[in-house]
Amino acid sequence: GSVTSFIVQYMKINWDLFGELALGIFSAIDAGSLILMHFTTNIWACYAGYLIFKACYMFLITIATFQIAVNLSMERYALMFGFNNFVALVIQTILTVVVVDSRGLGLDIVIQFLIYGSYFAVIAGIFLIRSIYMLVSSKCK
């Protein structure tokens, strides 16, 4: 994950135009690796899916953080990233209570992979639709 995050600084990409497309692609890869972990019984395929998921997730977080930081003044970094981390922790807690905890659905691990894979698939769809809109609107200008 750290290697993929380190690679971002050397990529010469117009992040304003292709940032959301990258977010959509890596969210789709994350969804695919989680869904692979749901449907397979091979432990090595699960390990490979986890490695792919973790590397892409770290890359995804790096791109998202960069996209946010570009549009902020330096004085607002602490407030924005502190708030983002708080909201992410709240969403993660709610999702964990609903999906994992016995007070919620209490689903087994195999079904959890499907739930989380579907979650990333929805996120990927949102980013891909938005990026297609951005690319088409930039071509029309």
UniProtKB/TrEMBL annotation:
<dbReference type="Pfam" id="PF01770">
    <property type="entry name" value="Folate_carrier"/>
</dbReference>
<dbReference type="InterPro" id="IPR002666">
    <property type="entry name" value="Folate_carrier"/>
</dbReference>
<protein>
    <submittedName>
        <fullName>Thiamine transporter 2</fullName>
    </submittedName>
</protein>
<comment type="similarity">
    <text>Belongs to the reduced folate carrier (RFC) transporter (TC 2.A.48) family.</text>
</comment>
<dbReference type="GO" id="GO:0005886">
    <property type="term" value="C:plasma membrane"/>
</dbReference>
<keyword id="KW-1133">Transmembrane helix</keyword>
<feature type="transmembrane region" description="Helical">
    <location>
        <begin position="77"/>
        <end position="97"/>
    </location>
</feature>
<keyword id="KW-0472">Membrane</keyword>
<feature type="transmembrane region" description="Helical">
    <location>
        <begin position="21"/>
        <end position="41"/>
    </location>
</feature>
<dbReference type="GO" id="GO:0015234">
    <property type="term" value="F:thiamine transmembrane transporter activity"/>
</dbReference>
<keyword id="KW-0812">Transmembrane</keyword>
<feature type="transmembrane region" description="Helical">
    <location>
        <begin position="47"/>
        <end position="70"/>
    </location>
</feature>
<feature type="transmembrane region" description="Helical">
    <location>
        <begin position="109"/>
        <end position="129"/>
    </location>
</feature>
